[in-house]
Amino acid sequence: TALCLPGIPAAAAQTAAPGPERQLSDVIPAPAQIAPNSKADFTLGPHTTIHTQLGSAEAESVGTYLAEVLRPATGFELPVDSSARSKGPGISLLLGKGGADVGEQGYQLDVAKSGITVRAETPEGLFAGVQTLRQLLPAQVEADQTFSRTWTVPGGRIVDEPRFEYRGAMLDLARHFHEPDEIKSYIDEIAQFKINHLHLHLSDDQGWRIEIESWPELTTVGGGPGTGVDGEGPGFLTKAEYSDLVAYAESRFITIVPEIDMPGHTNAAQSTYAELNCDGVAVPPRTDIEVGYSSLCIDSEVTYRFAEDVIREVAELTPGPYLHIGGDEAHATSEEDYRTFMDRVLPLVEKYGKRAFGWNEVAQADLPTSVVPQYWSTETENADVAEAVAKGNQVIMSPANKTYLDMKYDESTPLGLQWAGLIEVRDAYDWDPGNHLQGVGEESVFGVEAPLWSETLRTLDDIEFMAFPRLPAIAEIGWSPQEARDWESFSQRLAEQGPRWEERGVNFYRSPQINWP
Ligand code: TNX
């Protein structure tokens, strides 16, 4: 830098106006519209105030969130003021139509010399704008110690809204339980990339992870000591812990989507309760990673009492609109039984006020159009899903060979599986959900999701290593217009995330495809 050049006195170098370190386009996911104005940079100072929409507690809480993000590194006080007697230079978070039409999730960000304004129709939109603003500050803003330096935001205007309304990530709590604090930490990370749903895979062959009062041993036994892959992932969420997570996620504008996987992937339940087996004998618990061997007993009324109890309790606990009932890899259930099961169970989800999600196999059943198949197969053709879409169903795109964060990056990746292939960052990035699957066009795509299965994972470090940097790729695919994104630009913007992860102590894979600084 200038300070290191021989012959230039430090004082002279410092008087040269320090331009912003970042450019207005240095954001993931790439904003829809960007108009830089190099004469309009804004520099935060010790007197910067965060002004929020008069009378809106929600806008004020987004302001408080922003202040909490910026205070440690800047050392500035950054008071949050919703009194509308706004004085002094500041960052304004305003609600209501005003500028461009940005829909329910979008925002407009104006950076001028005199201040910054984020405008949105909803608090959710403000929060998205705040994430953009955050990335426009130098990486050191993510540190938890104070730096004395200039904090300049590049001038101009961003008008931004998402391509798809649903952008999800998934954690598998069944194969290895992840503690609430680890889940919260992941929530904080994915929120920065404008992910707005977190799908929790709460039950599987190796463990049951959500308290159900009417079947109490599901957790004490099914989620108890010795459960999880290799017996190393025990634990479960009490109802109170689940509700606390839901509230935490909500504070980051993330909706929790709970999944109870049925009629296969049910060994934990069937080893806990003998009556869930056709022969009335409990199966032994399993801690290996085989799939497709378990099935609830389709002809037994106990099965439907169980399914209804679980769906009712989980639905009651979940303020979000969706409930995922799994339905994948039911190889031990005949096709006819599978349809019988879904015909009875899908309406239960609706009965308790939720919209059903299911893995793409649900499309083999007679689907109401409200049901959303989540496409995970690696094929680019699927007759059942195409037929459902022709009837009006929407689809979440999670093709395993693109979006599965548990696939290895390359042969040498110490964690992960590779049944769907190796997925380097570029593989995760270079595809278009609007034309990936035959018969499923843009308008039938509800959104995209990046699942992270945890057969090989233990710690938060493991989660982060597999998610970053591929999760931002999926987030950009879900948010940015197809024409606003390309690999060259993404890989450069992604490189700039490296120092930010370092400041936050987030583990990530230093992909050789990226020119990390
Ligand atoms: C397939 S994808 C599964 C999961 C495994 C995953 C491992 C899907 C709906 N089912 O049971 O954990 O592969 O990658």
TrEMBL record:
Residues 164-481 form the Glycoside hydrolase family 20 catalytic domain. The keyword Signal applies. GO terms for cellular component: membrane. Residues 26-160 form the Beta-hexosaminidase bacterial type N-terminal domain. Gene3D superfamilies: Chitobiase/beta-hexosaminidase domain 2-like (3.30.379.10), Glycosidases (3.20.20.80). One of its GO terms (molecular function) is beta-N-acetylhexosaminidase activity. Keywords: Glycosidase, Hydrolase, Signal. It catalyses: Hydrolysis of terminal non-reducing N-acetyl-D-hexosamine residues in N-acetyl-beta-D-hexosaminides. One of its GO terms (biological process) is glycosaminoglycan metabolic process. This is beta-N-acetylhexosaminidase. It comes from Prauserella cavernicola.
